[in-house]
Backbone:
């Protein structure tokens, strides 16, 4: 049975920890979209590790880790992350980590272009992670991007980069951005990166299909979350890839028939980084949630916007992904509250909306309708058994699962690997 693990909100749901735990039961963990904009935190043995590109299965020694073709790859980020893995963690990545030869590359000019576009958007900026993700996917869809396989042919790489740099400089000039790109340093460094990452590069689609034929179990690790999906999220305040389960098949090069189950992960409340509508954002409780939940971006360190659980958005994510089961994380962050508002509906111009709005202007104007849930005001951090949770915490989680119509499979009560309730 293969499993996709997806975020149900605007990312940062705690997927890293859950994938790390579950990967013990799998032979392979593969990323299917995004890039080093992701920050997957895994904590064990009093240490905290943040992964950006390498799949969170890397800490389980028998697991093969794959970066699928749907990922946009900054080769330097991969080199640095794999070196840190070897030096700090003594984890050897060669022979365990495989990168698709079809991944599109992030080049330094993608970051410059992103800065120029965000600057021009002003108040309407997306608030990206500044990793060059959007412009790299633009080049992919525009059919001009460079791929990992191009790095493997250094003799033609220089010519391809020079052509693209000339085009990017014309765009930067049109945007009146005071920076031009020099092609030669990029050509030199990227040829070197190709040499360094060559040991990881292969046709990962062929590899995954072989594993499937051999009856091996694969976990597909989502980055970001459903509400950041370029098609299904709160467009244009989204990332540039398909973070929802629908992205798996194209993003790794296997048939959708082989994605057998989908697990959705959500926080017991809601957070978002960057711009865009957030109906349940709370001015009063936001700071307390941020402090208690240490809600600062693991990639950029930015403070996250915080608010209550958004039921309509959660239901929408459950539908888009057809979730088989649900994991709720960071329940302990709610320990301090006497009452916990839970958004059960959106009201817009006096009527309850029956669908999650496509237009961000509508989503920005909806009025959340809250049901007030009883808080438990007792410590849940570190609890590992359902029966040890306070009654009000059980009620909250049961309500959440019933509301979403998805059975609860796990509850996380701390960042640590062991502090998890399995149902
Ligand atoms: P980009 O992915 O860097 O283009 O950023 C687009 C939007 O997605 C911004 O609002 C980012 O804050 C958000 N985003 C991207 N990656 C993550 C993530 O891993 N967690 C949470 N938000 C993210």
Residues:
């Amino acid at each position: 049975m293969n499993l996709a693990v997806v975020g149900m909100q605007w990312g940062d749901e705690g997927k890293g920890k859950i994938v790390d735990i579950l990967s013990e039961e799998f032979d392979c963990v593969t990323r299917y979209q995004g890039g080093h904009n992701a920050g997957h935190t895994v904590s064990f043995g009093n240490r905290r590790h943040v992964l950006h590109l390498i799949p969170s299965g890397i800490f389980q020694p028998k697991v093969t880790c794959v970066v699928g073709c749907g990922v946009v790859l900054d080769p330097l980020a991969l080199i640095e992350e794999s070196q840190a893995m070897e030096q700090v963690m003594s984890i050897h990545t060669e022979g365990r980590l495989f990168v698709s030869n079809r991944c599109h590359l992030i080049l330094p000019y993608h970051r410059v272009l992103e800065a120029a576009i965000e600057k021009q958007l002003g108040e309407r900026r997306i608030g990206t992670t500044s990793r060059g993700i959007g412009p790299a996917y633009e080049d992919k869809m525009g059919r001009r991007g460079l791929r990992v396989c191009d790095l493997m042919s250094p003799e033609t790489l220089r010519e391809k980069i020079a052509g693209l740099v000339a085009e990017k400089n014309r765009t930067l000039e049109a945007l009146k951005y005071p920076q031009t790109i020099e092609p030669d340093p990029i050509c030199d460094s990227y040829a070197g990166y190709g040499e360094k990452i060559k040991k990881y590069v292969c046709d990962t689609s062929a590899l995954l299909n072989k594993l499937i034929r051999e009856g091996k179990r694969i976990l597909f690790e989502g980055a970001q979350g459903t509400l950041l999906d370029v098609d299904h999220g709160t467009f244009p305040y989204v990332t540039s890839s398909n973070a929802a389960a629908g992205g798996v098949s194209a993003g790794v090069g296997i048939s959708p028939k082989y994605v057998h189950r989908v697990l959705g992960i959500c926080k017991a409340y809601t957070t978002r980084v960057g711009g865009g509508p957030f109906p349940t954002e709370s001015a009063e409780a936001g700071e307390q949630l941020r402090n208690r939940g240490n809600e600062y971006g693991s990639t950029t360190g930015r403070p996250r916007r915080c608010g209550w659980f958004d039921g309509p958005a959660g239901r929408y994510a459950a539908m888009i992904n057809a979730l088989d089961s649900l994991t709720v994380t960071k329940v302990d962050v709610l320990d301090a509250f006497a009452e916990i508002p839970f958004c059960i509906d959106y009201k817009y111009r006096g009527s309850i909306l029956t669908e999650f709005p496509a237009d961000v202007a509508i989503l920005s104007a909806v009025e959340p309708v809250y049901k007030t849930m009883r808080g438990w005001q007792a410590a849940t951090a570190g609890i590992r058994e359902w029966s040890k949770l306070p009654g009000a915490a059980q009620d909250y989680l049961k309500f959440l699962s019933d509301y979403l119509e998805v059975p609860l499979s796990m509850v996380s009560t701390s960042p640590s690997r062991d502090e998890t309730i399995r149902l």
Summary: The first strand starts at residue 3 and ends at 7.
